[in-house]
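Try this one yourself first.
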């Protein structure tokens, strides 16, 4: 059997290799075939190795997309189908108008709001117009072929296979898709942090009528800086996406080559999951990594020469324009005194067990009209004023081409070249390393071209509060000279060009944990960028502080290997604990009678907690005793004590990694937080010294798996964010945290040295053998040795070869 498999694979490889080495005349024929597949249809060879990881072998980009679409459907058909229903604006039809929309592709709270928005996008022809644009504004021929192939592969799987996942088996909403659906998903992912955040207000905004329109009421009081900062945290400090990544320069490593550790933090369920694969077109492309579901290219990964990862950035991906309205018509606004009518985008949505709903959205030259920045910061549409949202990523289909450029890169310089050419990264930083020993960090992302000069000259009264406080620009939309303009090298107007991007090349380490570009390397701080990219000289989060301490020490020690990256991932050190646990334990022991008064006025015996905290090992390992107690205490302490009173030693920009420090145990909130925490755990029936893994877990195949890691607010690198359910006896199952992990380096061979781990495994289908296998590895802090080279793929004891066709 093994020899038969080997002959099949070698035969397919030889065929594809020959195809990739065709002479020029034949290559022209191959290009035509890329655009117009033969009547025999598309095909690919998929070699599955351990943990269901597919190695997709194809002769062109269309076939590669076909194999990718097929393999993704095999693992995640229900999740994918649910997303395509979202993109078509049909959730209300199948699941009801008021049901929660899920949040995979937007922040819409209800299916109806989601449907109205995505139906509007589809009927506007936005995606078709972008597909028709020439590259780099529109997708390249290769990416178009991959999207078309992906749709064909997904459809072929649906036609030839039976859905076994109980989440959608037999469901009428599991239907074939088109290239347009695949492109629409890419666009939704790009704009998820811009228009996607504002779906509810985009679809609800309506012009004032009657007396309100005539008088200009109601009016909004300008919110304070704290309200604005809070709104920004809610919008663009969303814990629903995060990440760590670090690249090390060659002189810090054992072999003189670069190293990369990537640790994105994403939801464990739903459409924002990563999915692993290797994509190979012999002689053209060979890359391994994780793709966001429904996308045809590798999103984060590595090849024989370079490795890269992403972290969610601090850049604000959208801005607002305050409109001055025509006194006679609140749907007409003025620009340099000339009237412009808003455009209506009317969408009709079918509703389960109800009449269809038709609503009108209002769009301007800047974007859609919105009526709030957040529940705390209204932006009312009156007879005099309205606000429009500008999101340049709502017209960005360039992410796939940027990623494909990474996949083909041979150096960090090539990674930068792909960013410069395609400019398709919407809301993340890029961190990379290569086998020549180079390291790279860059915040090369698509942002509105808001310079500090423009904001100073054109901000409205509200904008003068929001921009310095949070980077959210609100510009005077009535002035033509307040247009965003264009930078040299920008592929479209209104965004920054490549020269503006905060970038750090060849530092001993380049690290980001969702902080600003400023502290990518503590010895080489980045400055001089515009406020919309992030701040300079401001307090760092504990995760950034802890990460810099760790990776700087690693770089100073030198001689690093992939094994050191693996140890860093699962060190599970708690910087908050290192800073505070000792002082907390001593202050606890000093409480009179070992008691503290809780927020309900009741006295609580906390004496047992003092010893537990003193003995705690300051980690979030599954066997760590005291970790859960400190975790729950720290959360309460941050709520009970204002941030400016939490530490005795304040923040200093001259020492940002080590300040603030020395927790203020004299604050009245300290003893209250301690009492409430002890009462909480006892009330839930949880011992104060219970091991973390007994209460931080997932259940797979009926087995309770302890999960290592901890909250980002504690500073833990290996982020895990379960939800607390006191009535249920502690934490619920882990819904979010570390996802597609990769530790990558190079030795003297042609094969990268890589260890990977997909924490939630390849498939959401509980009937799949790959529903929980890698989750068990994560529970035990174990890794998967990547099989990148042919010899490694062929030697897999779990090798399974499948040739997939468009026709059965």
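Now uncover the answer:
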């Amino acid at each position: 059997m093994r020899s038969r498999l080997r002959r099949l694979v070698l035969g397919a490889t030889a065929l594809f290799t020959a195809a990739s080495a065709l002479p020029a005349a034949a290559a022209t024929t191959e290009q035509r075939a890329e655009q117009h597949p033969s009547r025999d249809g598309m095909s690919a060879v998929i070699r599955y190795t351990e943990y269901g990881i597919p190695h997709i072998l194809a002769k062109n980009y269309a076939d590669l997309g076909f194999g990718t679409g097929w393999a993704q459907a095999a693992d995640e058909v229900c999740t994918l189908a649910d997303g395509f229903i979202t993109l078509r604006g049909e959730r209300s039809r199948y699941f009801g108008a008021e049901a929660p929309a899920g949040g995979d592709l937007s922040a819409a709270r209800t299916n109806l709001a989601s449907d109205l928005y995505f139906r509007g996008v589809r009927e506007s022809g936005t995606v078709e117009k972008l597909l028709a644009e020439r590259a780099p504004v529109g997708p390249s021929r290769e990416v178009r072929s991959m999207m078309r192939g992906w749709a064909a592969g997904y459809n072929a799987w649906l036609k030839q296979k039976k859905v076994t996942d109980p989440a959608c088996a037999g469901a009428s909403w599991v239907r074939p898709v088109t290239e347009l659906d695949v492109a629409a998903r890419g666009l939704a992912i790009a704009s998820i942090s811009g228009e996607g955040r504002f779906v509810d207000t985009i679809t609800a905004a309506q012009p004032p009528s009657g007396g309100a329109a005539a008088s200009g009421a109601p009016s909004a009081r300008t919110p304070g800086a704290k309200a604005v900062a809070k709104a920004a945290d809610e919008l663009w400090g969303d814990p629903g996406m995060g990440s760590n990544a670090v690249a090390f320069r060659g002189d810090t490593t054992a072999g003189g080559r670069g190293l990369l550790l990537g640790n994105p933090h994403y939801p464990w369920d739903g459409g924002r999951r990563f999915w692993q694969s290797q994509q190979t077109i012999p002689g053209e492309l060979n890359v391994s990594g994780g793709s966001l579901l429904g996308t045809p290219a590798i999103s984060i990964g590595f090849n024989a020469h370079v490795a890269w990862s992403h972290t969610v950035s601090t850049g604000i991906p959208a801005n607002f324009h305050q409109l001055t309205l025509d006194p006679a018509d609140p749907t007409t606004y003025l620009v340099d005194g000339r009237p412009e009518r808003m455009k209506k985008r009317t969408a009709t949505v079918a509703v389960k067990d109800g009449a269809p709903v038709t609503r009108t959205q209002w769009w301007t030259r800047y974007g859609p009209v919105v009526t709030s920045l957040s529940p705390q910061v209204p932006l009312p549409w009156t007879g005099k004023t309205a606000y429009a949202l500008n999101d340049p990523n709502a017209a960005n289909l360039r992410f796939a081409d940027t990623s494909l450029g990474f996949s083909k890169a041979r150096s960090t310089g090539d990674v930068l070249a792909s960013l410069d050419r395609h400019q398709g990264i919407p809301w993340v930083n890029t961190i990379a390393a290569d086998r020549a020993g180079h390291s790279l960090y860059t915040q090369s992302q698509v942002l509105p071209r808001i310079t500090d000069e423009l904001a100073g000259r054109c901000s409205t009264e509200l904008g003068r509060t929001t921009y310095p406080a949070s980077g959210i620009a609100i510009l005077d939309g009535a002035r033509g000279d307040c247009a965003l303009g264009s930078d040299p090298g920008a592929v479209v107007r209104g965004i920054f060009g490549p020269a503006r991007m905060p970038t750090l090349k060849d530092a001993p380490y380049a690290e980001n944990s969702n902080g600003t570009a400023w502290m990518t390397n503590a010895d080489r701080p980045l400055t001089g960028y515009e406020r919309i990219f992030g701040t300079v000289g401001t307090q760092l989060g504990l995760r950034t502080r802890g990460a810099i301490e760790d990776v700087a020490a690693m770089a100073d020690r030198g001689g690093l290997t992939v094994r050191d990256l693996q140890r860093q991932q699962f060190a599970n050190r708690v910087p908050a604990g290192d800073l505070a646990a000792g002082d907390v334990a001593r202050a606890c022991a000093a409480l009179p009678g070992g008691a503290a008064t809780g927020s309900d006025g009741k006295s609580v015996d906390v004496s047992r907690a003092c010893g537990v905290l003193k003995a705690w090992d300051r980690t979030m390992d599954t066997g760590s005793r005291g970790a859960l107690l400190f975790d729950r205490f720290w959360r309460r302490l941050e709520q009970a004590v204002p941030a400016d009173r939490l530490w005795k030693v304040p923040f200093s920009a001259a020492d940002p990694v080590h300040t603030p420090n020395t927790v203020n145990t004299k604050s009245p909130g300290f003893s209250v937080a301690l009492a409430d925490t002890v009462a909480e755990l006892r009330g839930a029936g949880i011992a104060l010294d219970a091991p973390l893994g007994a209460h931080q877990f997932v259940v797979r195949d009926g087995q309770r798996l302890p999960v290592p890691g901890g909250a980002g607010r504690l500073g833990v690198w290996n982020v895990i964010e379960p939800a607390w359910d006191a009535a249920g006896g502690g934490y619920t199952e882990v819904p979010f945290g570390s996802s597609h992990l990769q530790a990558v380096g190079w030795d003297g061979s042609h094969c990268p040295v890589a260890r990977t781990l997909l924490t939630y495994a390849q498939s959401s289908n509980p009937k799949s053998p790959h529903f929980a296998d890698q989750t068990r590895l994560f529970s035990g802090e174990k890794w998967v040795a990547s099989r990148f080279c042919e010899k490694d793929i062929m030697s897999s004891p779990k090798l399974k070869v499948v040739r997939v066709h468009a026709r059965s």
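Discussion: The two ends are 23 Å apart (CA to CA). The chain is about 35% helix and 20% strand.
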